[in-house]
Structure formats: structure tokens, C-alpha cells
Amino acid sequence: MQKIDEFIEDLLNKKGLSGVDEEAKKDLITEMKTQLEEQLNRAAVQALPEEKAKELADLVDKPDFTTKEMAKFMQESGVDFNQIALETMQKFAKLYLGEEA
After folding, report:
1. Helix/strand/coil (H/E/C) assignment for every residue in 30-65
2. Cα(11)–Cα(29) distance, integer angstroms
3. What is the mean pLDDT of residues 8-24?
4. How far apart are the C-alpha atoms of 14 and 32, rounded to whole Å?
5. Quick check: 56 and 45 in contact, CB under 8 A?
6. How far apart are alpha carbons 94 and 101 in whole angstroms?
7. CB 97 within 8 A of CB 17
8. d(C-alpha 93, C-alpha 62), whole Å
């Protein structure tokens, strides 16, 4: 995800870590990306109405359920995931930059 990569790079620059060793920076970016994606996924699932969350749980258990089908399901769920992503990323940034306890 290009936008997540850019977002994380921006956070590193704001934190003053732009001059970090490239290998260490690569590891840090990978770790931050994993954490952010986990938070985004958790926030998205928590925003689903209960019946949709149950439906998703059943779908995820199917071995042929694809990432594309997951994206379609989320898009058709009636929840504003763009807003959820924005709020989640803002919280992530504030915590990372030490602006919020």
C-alpha cells in the first residue's frame, strides 16, 4: 500500500529518524506497517454491525475467501472505512510522535 508507506516515511521524518541506517530503517518501516495494518483491520471489523461481523467471521473461515472478496464485503457493509482509516492513522501518528498518552 503506497499511501501507508508514505504515511510511515512521513512519521519517521517528523520523529527525526530520516538519517537512520537503511537496514534499521527498513526493519522499522516493516514493523510499523504491520502494526498499523493490524490496527486498521481491527478498527474496520469493530465498526461493522454485529450481523455483518458474524457474516464476515463465517466468510473468513472459508479457505477460498480472497482478499478481493474481503475488500468487496467491507465496501458493501455500509460503514465508512475511509473515515475509520483516517481516524486510526491519526491516532497511530499521535501515539508514535508522543502527542497522546
Report:
1. HHHHHHHHHHHHHHHHHHCCHHHHHHHHHHHCCCCC
2. 10
3. 86
4. 14
5. yes
6. 9
7. no
8. 34
What tens digit of pLDDT does each residue of 19-68 get? Answer: 778 898 899 999 999 999 999 989 999 999 999 999 999 998 999 998 88
- Predicted confidence at residue 2, as pLDDT, reads 66
Q: What are phi and psi of 17, to 5 degrees?
A: -105, 20
**Hey, what's the cell of 63?**
479457505
Question: Residue holding cell 465496501?
Answer: 75
Whole-model pTM?
0.80
- Give the CA distances from residue 26 to residues 16, 23, 34, 37, 87, in Å, rounded to whole numbers and listed in that order: 15, 5, 12, 16, 25
